[in-house]
Each structure stands twice: as C-alpha cells, then as structure tokens.
Automatic annotation (TrEMBL):
Name of the featured protein: LacI family transcriptional regulator
Pfam families named in the record: LacI, Peripla_BP_3
Domain HTH lacI-type positions: 5-59
Superkingdom, taxonomy of origin: Bacteria
GO MF annotation list: DNA-binding transcription factor activity; transcription cis-regulatory region binding
InterPro entries on file: HTH_LacI, LacI/GalR-like_sensor, Lambda_DNA-bd_dom_sf, Peripla_BP_I
The keyword Transmembrane helix belongs to this UniProt entry's keyword annotation: no
Keyword Ribonucleoprotein: no
Keyword vocabulary terms for this entry: DNA-binding, Transcription, Transcription regulation
Length: 318
C-alpha cells in the first residue's frame, strides 16, 4: 500500500515551497493564480487530500461557520434549517446556506460551502452517490441528515424510516382499512426503507401490497392520485408534500377525505399543520435531528457515527 501523499510531495512536484502549498490549500492570500493552479494540479495528480481535522484543530483563526446544503423543493428541509439555527447558535456557530434547486446540483451547492471556508458541512437528504460523499468528507467534516448511508468518513443522522412506515400502515389497519396503497418515493432518500417496511407490514397483516409510483413532490402526489385504484380506501404517502398533492387532487375529483379515502403523510412538515390541510402524518423530530447533526459537525476529531432517531405518529384529520 502506497503511503498517503504529503504536502511536501505536492511542493516537490509543483516546484514550490511547502509554505506556498499550505497557502494554496488554506485559500489564503500570497500565491498567484498561476501558482495556485500549478499546486492544485500537482495535488490532484498525486491524489493529495489535506488533513482537515489537523488543520481545524490547530488553526488560530476559525470561521465558526457550518455549511448547510438543502433542497428548496422539500418543505421538511426548511423545517430542518429552522431547527439548525438555534442549535448552531447555542454552540457558538453560524450557518452558511447553499441551495439545491431544479437547475443547481448538489455538487455546486457543496462547492460553494467549501469556498466559504466552512469548518464542517451538513447535507440535508443528499442524493449524491456514496463515493462522491466520501470524497467530500475527505476535504471537510461532513454530516448527512435524513439518508441511510454507508460512506467512508461521513457522519449520518437519520430517522428510523422503516419504523415510521410501519407506524403509518399499522395506524391505517387499526382504523379498519384493508385496501391500503403506498405512494412510493422512488429514488428519494428513505424511499427504499419506507417501501420495504410497508410491504412487510401489509403481508404480516395478510393484505396484498399495492405500490403506486410517486416521488417527493406535490406534483408526484397529484399524478399518483390519478392512478389510484377505486377500491383503495387508504394511502400511506412517501412524504407530506406527496400526500398533500394526493389530498388536493382526490378532493378536486369529488372523493371525500377521510370519509372515502384516508391519507397519511411522512415528515410532519409545516404545511401538514395548516388549518385547511390538517394532515395525519409520521413526525420526524427536526430539532432532535438538528441537535445531533450539530454535535457531530462541531467535533471534528470524532470518528464517523450514525445516529438514528425514532419517529412518532401524529393524528390529525385525514
């Protein structure tokens, strides 16, 4: 096994001093654009990655910034951001936010946070492959919220999605429903765990699973409503946004909720609590997730951990 490349190796390849290499990787003033490009090219060729933990522990000037990448399309991400702010302030940190949108990829959002010299990164429900998240963690301490993941060097804080899905189906069964469908999250984080638990819970109850393709957005719920078989009397949706799209579309078509079709969401996001929605749902503990993530993000010398938080059933009017 070859030894890990050092800063001295990069300096020798780029034909500069070790101090200049340090300036480049700290993004500090004192190196020309041409020199920076040459040093970074040498580092890439050698496979060099800075030891960020040593740098942060030994740094006299810390930014006290935690970078957060979130997807603007998902209401629960907004709830998590809101919970992260007081948790960060209590520890003496500030947050820097970078959004993922329909036209802005996760990689761009993460790179923006690195450019701001954030001490750690918190990624909300990322969809990047594990190898990409491992590479990111090699450059900066990284915490993933709301995704079950095995990626070297990455902390994970998540809800027990299988337990949440079981709670949803068992609640619908307890109401007397026998024809229960699941609107799937397809490839969204947590979708596989929620789908599998739904199928297992239905089969244990002696009922046939019915899975309808969906997704994590209201439009996905709208489309799923159009595919819903007439004999289905209850639906466990992938998340609240999907459930709300399903709810509005069913009501617009003349089907009464919950008299004809019961619906349960997942997240307990802010929209689910609105008076005209009052969605029954599975609550993820946003404040618990935020506190655990900040604890891991601010302890840069801690080995990677997984924190799993139990969900709760919230009964409302759907």
């Amino acid at each position: 096994m070859n030894p890990r490349p050092t800063m001295e190796d990069v300096a020798a390849r780029a034909r500069v001093s070790r101090a200049l290499v340090s300036i480049v990787y700290r993004n500090a003033p004192g190196a020309s654009d041409e020199t920076r490009a040459r040093v970074l090219a040498a580092g890439d060729a050698l496979g060099y990655r800075p030891d960020h933990r040593a740098r942060l522990l030994g740094s006299r000037q810390r930014t006290r910034l935690i970078g957060v990448a979130f997807d603007v399309r998902y209401p629960f991400h907004g709830d998590l951001v809101e919970a992260l702010y007081p948790a960060a302030e209590a520890l003496g940190y500030n947050l820097t936010l970078s959004a993922v949108t329909g036209s802005r990829r996760e990689s761009a959002a993460a790179q923006s946070l690195l450019d701001y010299r954030c001490e750690s990164l918190i990624l909300l429900g990322p969809t990047s492959p594990p190898a990409a998240l491992t590479a990111l963690a090699d450059s900066q301490p990284t915490v993933v919220i709301a995704r079950k993941l095995r990626a070297s060097g990455v902390h994970v804080v998540r809800t027990d999605d299988a337990a949440g899905s079981r709670l949803a189906v068992e609640h619908l069964l307890s109401l007397g429903h026998t024809q229960i469908a699941h609107v799937d999250g397809v490839r969204a984080p947590g979708a596989a765990e929620r789908r599998t638990a739904y199928v297992q819970t239905m089969r244990r109850a002696g009922r046939a699973p019915v899975i309808i393709p969906g997704g994590p957005t209201e439009s996905a719920g709208t489309e799923a409503a159009r595919r819903l078989p007439r004999n289905i009397t209850a639906v466990a949706a992938f998340n609240d946004a999907c459930a709300i799209g399903l709810l509005h579309t069913l009501r617009a078509s003349g089907r009464r909720v919950p008299e004809e079709v019961s619906i349960i969401g997942y997240d307990d996001s802010t929209p689910s609590r609105l008076d005209h929605i009052q969605l029954s749902t599975i609550a993820q503990n946003a404040h618990g997730l935020a506190a655990a993530a900040l604890d891991l993000a601010t302890c840069v010398d801690r080995s990677p951990q997984e924190v799993v938080i139990s969900p709760d059933l919230v009964r409302r009017k759907t």
